[in-house]
Amino acid sequence: MELLVKLLHIGFMSFWLGGAIYLPQVFWRHGRSEEAEAKVVLALARGVYLYVMSAGGIAAVVLGTVLVFFGVEGGWLPVKLALVLLLIAYHLFCGRTLLRLEKQRPPHRPAFYHALTVVPLILLPAIVALAVVKPF
Fold it and tell me: Whole-model pTM?
């Protein structure tokens, strides 16, 4: 049972982080679109945020919590959880950005979103390395 939970946890983390990497690019596209295309791009952003990122994130956090009850422990775990909290903060920032774009108040210039993609690209290998290597 524990192995199945780990497999599902990894799968949903992949959805969550895939969306987290892709969504800023959708925001960038929105900032560079004409008005008619911008509405379609905004609908895409909402779908990525709700159905990929949020669903994957909720499932990953729930399954990760279940894994802790299976006895996953070690000094690496609080560090990993701190990085997951940063990922949750990033997720909420993306949601806030989406709401502002829907209200037609772009919070940032389009180039900012390319830089925003770096956040999950740094967090992902750090979280995976801690979970796999368990360095302390």
Answer: 0.91
